[in-house]
Each structure stands twice: as structure tokens, then as C-alpha cells.
Amino acid sequence: MRFISILFLTLFAISNSRCTAQIASAKQSTSSKSGIITGADQTEKYLPYLKGKRIGMVANQSSIIGKKSSVDSLLSLGINIVKVFGPEHGFRGNASNGAAVSNEIDAKTGIPIISLYGKNQKPTKEQLADVDLMVFDIQDVGCRYYTNINTLEYIMEACAENNKELLILDRPNPNAYVVDGPVMTDDKFKSAIGIHYTPMTHGMTIGEFAQYLNGEGYLKEPCKLNIIKVANYSHDMSYVLPINPSPNLNTQQAVMLFPSLCMFEGTAINEGRGTYMPFTILGAPKLKDKYSFSYKPVGIPGMSERPNHKDSVCYGLDLRNYDVNQLRKSRQINLKWLIELYNAYPDKAKFFTPGRPGQDISAFDLRIGTDQLRKQIIAGVSEEEIRKSWEPELSKFKAIRAKYLLYAD
Q1: Contact by Cβ (8 Å): 102, 78
Q2: Residues whose CB is less than 8 angstroms from the CB of residue 59 and which lie 6 or more positions away in sequence, other chains included
């Protein structure tokens, strides 16, 4: 009996030593030169909590520990991941923008992948039945029209309804320095690319946004949260994403320009979709007489199959070498490009593309969260006056936001 006890203790010590070594190895491989350590990379803070539980992961290609997929890493550390829930672009991040994604079995791990961008946006009671704990680990870029925060709300709602806790492995927001744009205040502008009463850029991490959703009554009942904070981080710090958060944000330049250039979706301007330079260039065929820079959007599987002005030469602005530190210094979305290209466009009546049939709401309005900006651009209102019109709602939101921050501005 004594021999069996000694053998058990020896095996336990070896197992524990291996687990500790694995955690240390993962942590060592992820320490960045800047000192910022993501929640996922701090495995010592949550790995023991996951042990023995059936885990549901909300993850995509941006979910990494070190340089390896969080799902693959946690599986190798002995965590029982029973299913993965994938947002827009899918779990492995290879679906085009807006494309419906089907449920599947992951070829690499054999784990069922439940799409939250297909038949259902929110996990069902049946899908959560064999899950003890949900884990959310997705990189966001801080914009209302970037759909990861929609997925976050649906996950939180499902967890609250089914008495499941949500563990968030927080990550820096590369655009956290800017809280700007008109605040969406009218439900008629809600859409798949905007369901929250925030400005265009909210300046929060996923963990902070989850607290905001809980605190501001977006859910019928609050979701039980456990957040692994980013270490050594504040909102004003520069953070270079280690992996593309989505197929069309394939450079750090695109990530930084995204809040300003994504406004052009819903206009006659192509914002680089259909090229390998998305969200760093702007153009349209009808601007040929105004600009010398040109490019031709084409269908690119896994990025943009049907881009605006597909197979037509576009003329406009090349912002690949634009100094994005100007945006960081101003802490503002750039409106000058929108005003410039509207004024340069020869057929102004067709600059803003139609939205909902039978309503005076353009596709641009749904992205911005109001029709005021479109009407101001058409009327020739100055940038200064446009920005003034965002008050007092913008300042009110900033005061609300401050209640939920985990990191200094």
C-alpha cells in the first residue's frame, strides 16, 4: 500500500512538473519586447481553472498563444475543448467578408466547429449543453462596424440564459487611443454591422466592452464574467498585431486606417477590397480625371469575391505610406478623405449607395449609425462643424465608457 502511495505521488509530481514546464514554455515564447502580454499568453493565470472542465472556445485565426493557435495550444496542454464557435470569416479565418460560414469538423483537431455567422449568430441551448465553461479569445480592432463585438454580445447573452460563465482572454485594442465619430442613438440604424449605442470607435478592449454590455443593460440578465487582463498595457500604447485579425486587414497600416477607410463601404468608392492592399487605398473609375494613382480590384477567394468596381480600373488615393501616427496624435477618425473624394466625385447623386428599400437610409448610414453625416457631407458642412455636431453625445459616451475601463487611457 505504501509502495502504491509513493508511486502515485511520484506520477503526480512528474505530471505537475510537465504541466508547469509547458506553461513556462508558453509564457516564455510570448513575452514581447514591449512588455505587453495578452491574456491568452498568461497561461499560468487560467490553465488550472480550465482543467477538468468541458470547454467551448470562441476563437478564430487571431486566437494564439505565442505563435500557435490557442485551441491547438490548450489541447496540447490537456484541456478538454469540446467545440469551437467561429465568428465572421470562420475559425481558421479563411472566409470572405460577409460570407455565410457553415458548421464543420475541424480537419486538424477533429473538434466540431459551430459557425456564428451562418444559420445562427448565438449559440443555442443544445449547443451549450455539453459545455461547462465558455472561453472568448478573439482580437478586435475597436470599431462598432467590426462584427466581433456583436458576436461577443450574442455569446454573453447565451451564457447568461444557460447559466454558463464566460472567461475572456483579453487582448489590446490597436485603435484604443481613439474614441470618435457620431454616436448611434436611433434603433432604425441598427444592422448586422452595428447594434450598439457607441461612437464609430469605442476605445475599449473586448474585456472592457464585455463589462460595458453587462453594465449598460444590453442583456436581459448579466453574464458571469472572468477576465484575464492584458499585462503591462494602457490604451495609448502602440500595439502591432502578431497576426491578421481578418483577411482584409492584412497589414498594420490597414488596421490603423480601418476606422477611417471602412466608412467608404456604402459609397461609390472602393476601399481596396479585391486587391492585396485593402484599407490602404481608395478609388473609383469615375475619378480618372482627378487622380493619377490607379489599381484594378478583382475577385480574390477568401478575401473579397465581389468587390466594388470589380475588374474596373479605379483612380484615387494611395495611403500605404501615410503616417498613421497623425491619427494617433489627433485621436480622431480622418474625415478629410471622405470630404475630398465626395467633392471630387462627378456624379454626386450616386456617391452614397442605397440601403434599405423604401427608406431614406443609405448603406453608408447603417455603417455610420446615423444619416446626419451623409446629409452634412452633401450640404458641404465643414469638418469643424461636423465634429461639433457629435456633441454632447460623444462626451456622454466617454463618461459612460470610463466606468468599465480596465486600463488607463
Answers
A1: no
A2: 69, 70, 71, 84, 85, 86, 91, 135, 137, 138
User: What does the pLDDT look like over 205-234, one tens digit per residue?
Assistant: 999 999 999 999 999 999 999 999 999 999
Cell 498563444 found at: 65
CB-CB contact of 274 with 300 (8 Å): yes
Domain spanning 252-390: CATH 3.90.1150.10: no
User: What is the 3 state secondary structure string of 118-141?
Assistant: CCCCCCCHHHHCCCCEEEEECCCC
Q: Write out the three cell numbers for 356.
A: 434599405
200, 175 contact by CB (below 8 A): no
Q: What count of Cα atoms within 13 Å lies in the side-chain half-sphere of residue 143?
A: 20
Q: How far apart are CA 223 and CA 196, in angstroms?
A: 17
The structure's pTM equals: 0.89
**What's the CATH fold of domain 35-228?**
Rossmann fold (3.40.50)
